[in-house]
Amino acid sequence: MRINLLGPVEVVRDGVSHPVTGLRRKAVLAVLALRRGEVVGVERLVDSVWAGGAPSTVANSLQQHVSQLRQLLGDRGAIVARSPGYLLPVDAADTDVAAAERLIRAAGTSTDPAERAGLLRSALALWRGASLADVATLPWLDDQARRLDELRLRARRDLAAAEQATGNDAALLPELADLAAAHPFDEQLHARLILALYRAGRQADALHAYQRLRERLRGELGIDPSPPLRELETAILRQDSALAARPAPPPDTAPARSHATRVPAQLPAAVPAFTGRDLELHELGSAAEDTGDATVVIVAVSGSGGVGKTALAVHWAQRAAPRFPDGQLYADLRGFAPEGSAADPGEVVRGFLDAFGVPASSVPAGPAAQTALYRSLVAGRRVLVVLDNARDAAQVRPLLPGAPGCMVVVTSRNLLTPLIAGEGARPVPLGPLTAEEASALLARRLGAARTAAEPAAVAEIVACCARLPLPLVVVAAQAATRPALTLTTLAAQLRERRGDLGAFDAGDDSTDVSAVFSWSYRRLTEPAARLFRLLGLHPGPDAGVTTAAALCGASPAATRRLLAELAEASLISETVTDRFTMHDLLRVYATARAVEHDEAADRLAAQRRLLEHLLHSVQACARVQYGAWQSLDLPPAAEDLPVERFGDPTAANVWYRAEQRVLIAAIGLAAGVPGLEGYAWRLAWSQSLIMEAHALWRDAVTVQRIGLDAATRTGDRIGCAHAEHGLGMAYSWMGRDADALRHLDRAAWEFAALGDRWHHAQVCFGIGLVHDRRGEDAEARDQSMRALELYREIGDRRGQAIALGNIGWSMAKLGDLEPALAACRESLEAHQELGDVQGIAGSWDSLGLVHQRSGRLGDATTCYRAAVELWGRIENDFQRAATLTRLGDVHAAAGEDDEARACWELSLTILDELEHADAEAVRGRLAPVPIHTASRIDG
To answer: Which long-range contacts (CB under 8 A, 24 or more apart) does 456-462 make?
Structure first.
């Protein structure tokens, strides 16, 4: 299967084209395909697809588009829901963009002009018109279309160069004429056209083409053709024999006019088996296109140790060297060298002067004068300067040329923010390779046959190496030197040594991952170094500012400054605003440093602060949404412990979505640390209702089991009761009724034995909901009545209101409609007095069922619509889908088929997204003959 973007958006399955309908649906597919292999956040998707004009129902629209795209792609796994958004896996579908980039990349590495031309022709054949032709009206996709069209133009230019190198000028003329007409000021293209005309025996036409270009440049831009073009005209006039032997040098590869005695060529050898980095290479190439502007072009490549900054810079520089015919300079600034001091800029300048062949007697005294001479030498020339491993902007500034035409590529572990702000450097941040790129790197190092034979082992090796080039090449070297070693065995060895960076040591500091990380770590201030170490103990995939503050015991403002220092050093990265992460190998390094430098008591105290922060914060999150329903009796948080506070349910949900994976991982952390086990069941219980609302049912089972195991080990009866309750509810959400009742019965017995009537009543609700799902309406009613008795005994009004609503629901299903109506109305009034949105929504839902069973379809419609609106407001998609199903049933009973179908389709979209079993019942309603039922999904 292939997704085509180089033209109108389409899907090709089994050789058959399937057009994608609807602008938004096409745009969703295009964004996911362009970011294939990456999780695209919902906010980014919405911004890219709706461009600031998203409707209030955008979440539902997005879900529906994804569901329909899955059907079009013919595979539910083609688009994966993964927090915080969606993922189009690399192995789910190829794209014509990826295919074109592979072909163009292969052409760039070929030394055979004929082979290069063939690869480029194959790449260009993939374009079916303008890139992203039918979605480029959207700003983000328009930017991507421009990028792809620029890639196409560069491929056409490279094809012209390859064809010319084979002497195929005559056949090339139509293509060159079209290109030159489309780009009237591109001197390089016009130079190729003029040369092709001359070689085809059309000397007069060649000179006429030159004269037209000269007149256009003078008339519209007020400039003359560049010296290389003028030299080409002169060569044609004198019929220079060299023109027949090789292509005329285009403007950016013309011989240098230098006052120096040598043209420097200092670039190191290209990195063998360089793989991937297409986007970054494109950004470097785009920057190089601007070297004719009024300023020096500077690119700052930043990233953590081992991420491949030098490899990228050198690989690109080697390819781009012909663009800079006046020389290529290179210096290792040793900004993070394992030993010795960083390079002195004055010494580097003197090295550059020597590279240009400036005699020692002509080198002036003093760094300022030497820098001035260096800048004079490169002024008016096209020189590429690669400054590798820079410490900071101050080390770089004396080495910058002063006149346009030159390009500087700086690599550093620091972000070089001052260079970006002061000198206009273009940032190119470098992260880990994609899984596809990392696998390709291993294939190029070890041979495609060897890696193709063990794809699962390759995937595990890639994961163990955190997709970082340095550990990947170290492991590849180990495999290459031991050909009898299977990759499966190697992967198992890495798995066994997970947490030990010694597995990634090839014998010297430059190939020892731990040593490479240390060069950045040792330059941190002590507070930042301590935070870095403690972040290794953080259990989640990323950390917010407040969470990091709790971990290190500092204020959020001070912690923000420390995080900025770590980010500047590329030891962490800011994934979204105010959320920071580090890759797995840096986490291993940070943890090892914590064990080495921090006392065990200090590490335990940091973990306790973190868990306290998360527990109090998630309690506040649950309280703003569900009142006291999930509250626990906790001692007050310490005054200096930051705790999140929320003004409304929306803010609470935003926070929970950001911290969701952290909260889940924290439960495992607590269960495994002696003395912290009590946090496991408390954190699991505190977020159980939130997890239901967010459809995290499988995760809920996992964390409740962890909490139950921890409470059982420590003999915590209260913890066991809550964990049994939470586990029972999690199973009930998944429809595993027998498992649910087993755990809920244990919880009811335990709470009764403890004399805890409030939580006992809550468990009765859970048991009643399971019976309701099973169609055992009398048993469900009896459980709700038992809960009502308990809540009346302790005077809990909210519990009574919920019990009355559930009683009314069960009575309606049993046919006791008048008492059911009275109970539901009393429940609604109580919830409205309490201001409980969740309870109000449930009461409207129950009232809707009573009216539906009574045949009052108009009243039922009004009630269900009120419930749907409230479920949406508190973002409870599961309950919203359940009520939408019943609302569709009412419309169907009233003969309103279109309205019924709309409700069922939206419900089905939500349930499919949640992967809930109730989706099949709704799908049955959408069959040609609708099946009308009125079963309660949510309880």
So the answer is: 456/488, 456/491, 457/486, 457/487, 457/488, 457/490, 457/491, 458/487, 458/491, 459/435, 460/491, 460/494, 460/495, 461/487, 461/490, 461/491, 461/494, 462/435, 462/438
| Residues paired with residue 505 on neighbouring β-strands, in sequence order | 512
Q: Yes or no: say if 349 and 370 are a contact pair by the CB < 8 Å rule.
A: yes
Cα(700)–Cα(395) distance, integer angstroms: 52
Q: Maximum distance among all alpha carbons in the chain?
A: 110
Task: Supply the CATH classification number for the domain 2-156.
Answer: 1.10.10.10
The whole-angstrom separation of Cα 328 and Cα 330 is 7
Question: What pLDDT digit, counting tens, does each position of 159-172 carry?
Answer: 888 877 777 666 67
| Spatial distance between the Cα atoms of 737 and 769, rounded to a whole number of angstroms | 10
The SS3 assignment for 937 reads coil
User: Order of strands, edge to edge, in the sheet holding 10-13?
Assistant: 16-19, 10-13, 2-4, 94-95
For the segment(s) 649-754, the CATH number from 1.25.40.10, 1.10.357.10, 2.30.30.40, 3.40.50.720 is 1.25.40.10
Which has the minimum average pLDDT: 15-24, 305-314, 501-510?
A: 501-510
CATH entry 1.20.950.20 includes domain 278-429: no
Asked if the model's pLDDT at residue 337 lies above 70, the reply is no
Residue corresponding to tokens 């060649």: 206
Q: Which pair of structure tokens corresponds to residue 290?
A: 């601007």
For 848-887, how does the pLDDT look when each residue is reduced to its tens digit (9 = 90+)?
Answer: 999 999 999 999 999 999 999 998 888 788 889 999 999 9
CATH 1.25.40.10 domain position(s) in the chain: 170-253, 649-754, 784-925
Q: Which residues pair with 87 in a beta bridge?
A: 39, 80
**Sign of torsion, CA 547 548 552 558?**
negative
* Sign, CA torsion 673/674/675/677: positive
Burial group, residue 173, by CB count within 10 angstroms (0-12, 13-18, 19+): middle
Q: How far is CA 467 from the centre of its chain?
A: 14
From CA 268, how far away is CA 274, in angstroms rounded? 14
Quickly list DSSP for 24-57: HHHHHHHHHHHTTTSEEEHHHHHHHHHTT---TT
Neighbours of 12 (CB within 10 A): 15
pTM for this model (two decimals): 0.59
Report the Cα 359 to chain-centroid distance in Å.
53
DSSP 343: P
Say if residue 496 is exposed, middle or buried (CB neighbours under 10 Å; 0-12, 13-18, 19+).
Answer: exposed
Percent helix, percent strand, percent coil in the chain, to nearest 5: 65, 5, 30
CA distance 695 to 915: 9
Provide the pLDDT confidence category of residue 709 given band limits of 50, 70 and 90.
very high
Highest CATH level, class, for 170-253: mainly alpha
pLDDT for 775-785, tens place per residue? 999 999 999 99
Tell me what the pLDDT averaged over the chain comes to.
84
111-119, long-range: CB < 8 A, 24+ apart: 113/162, 113/163, 113/165, 113/166, 114/162, 114/166, 116/158, 116/162, 117/159, 117/162, 117/163, 117/166, 117/168
d(CA 849, CA 859): 10
The closest alpha carbon to 787, from 761, 768, 755, belongs to 761
Closest CA to 285 of 105, 140, 419, 137: 105
Judge if the upstream peptide bond of residue 84 is cis by omega within 30 degrees of 0. yes
Distance between CA 658 and CA 542 in Å, rounded? Answer: 9
With respect to CATH, is domain 784-925 assigned 1.25.40.10?
Answer: yes
